[in-house]
Amino acid sequence: MITEVGQTITTKNFKLTVESLDKPKGNDYVKPSEGNEFVEIGIILENISSKDYMVSSMLMFNAYQDSFSINEDLMAHTLDSQVGTMDGALAAGKKIRGKLAYQLPKDWKELEINTDFTVLSFSSDGEIKIVLQNK
């Protein structure tokens, strides 16, 4: 389980690192609802196997804020054009950098993200759990 930014977990086929946790304020066009904030989790996923895989943020990542199921916030993704979503082809020996973006109440306590490698990639690596606290 990953509990801090900068931690990495290695499975048989993948290395997953939580690179960042940011809280962008928004801009003139995209802002969180009153009482909420955007939360972006930066992730690097490295394919350390000899096979190619597909990565899908919608299918592989399930998130919970204080034990309640939540979905990504698509508007939050528009705030940073430098880093895309966690979606795409991941060739053997290559990496993908992306972010998962949510809109959460400002007083959230815990964000849990379950990464399921078996859903799309036909990998037997199972799940990695990311549990981050609001600081």
Short description:
Helix content is 9%, strand content 47%. It is mainly beta. The protein has a single domain (8-133), classed as Immunoglobulin-like (Sandwich), CATH 2.60.40.1240.
What does the model show?
The chain has 135 residues and is mostly beta strands. The chain has one domain: Immunoglobulin-like (Sandwich), CATH 2.60.40.1240. Helix content is 9%, strand content 47%. The chain is built from three helices and ten strands. The chain has helices spanning 57-60, 74-77, 118-121, and strands at residues 8-10, 14-22, 36-47, 53-55, 61-65, 68-70, 88-90, 95-105, 110-116, 127-133. The radius of gyration is 15 Å and the shape is globular. The protein starts with 7 loop residues before the first strand and ends with a strand. The mean pLDDT is 94.
**Strand portion, in percent?**
over 45%
- H/E series, N to C? EEEEHEEHEEEHE
Number of helices: 3
Which CATH class is shown?
Mainly Beta
What's the helical proportion of residues?
under 10%
* Total count of strands: 10
What is the CA–CA distance across the termini? 19 Å
The value of Rg in angstroms is 15 Å
Report the uncertain regions: none
Q: Largest sheet at a glance?
A: 4 strands, antiparallel
Would you spell out the secondary-structure blueprint of this structure?
Layout: E1 8-10, E2 14-22, E3 36-47, E4 53-55, H1 57-60, E5 61-65, E6 68-70, H2 74-77, E7 88-90, E8 95-105, E9 110-116, H3 118-121, E10 127-133
Antiparallel strand pairs: 1-2, 2-3, 3-8, 4-7, 5-6, 5-9, 9-10
